Request: fold
Amino acid sequence: MSALDILARLIGPQRAVSVYIHGRRWGIPALLLTVFAGGWALFIGLSDPDRYRHLAYLTVPVVGTAPLTGTGSSGIFVDVALPDGTVLNLNTTEGPMIQSISDTACLQQREDTKTNAVTYRLRLPGSCARAQQ
Reply:
């Protein structure tokens, strides 16, 4: 028994054909849109915007750089020395960030509010310049 037969018994043969054609034409896009909207709502609902707390911007010396791939056009690894002497290996794929790294780099120091772990992210030099003003 097909879906058209079931619809014909429930709502009549004339309406069944219209509903069936409409469902075949718009059913899958409507289902995909509903699933996408539900997934997006779940993502937003479960996200935690206050998970990381900004601690400071640091201007640190660059120890070395290496390309992510053979060409270097997709991003770079950046080795930086923190004020306590620890060397971090960070990476970036952002073009403006890659071009701004020279002998120093700007880092954002953040703390995870759940685990109290300190993390570092590369930032554009303007962030460190504004923080020093």
Remarks:
- The beta strands are 52-67, 76-81, 87-92, 104-112, 118-123.
- The helical segments are 3-11, 13-46, 95-100, 125-132.
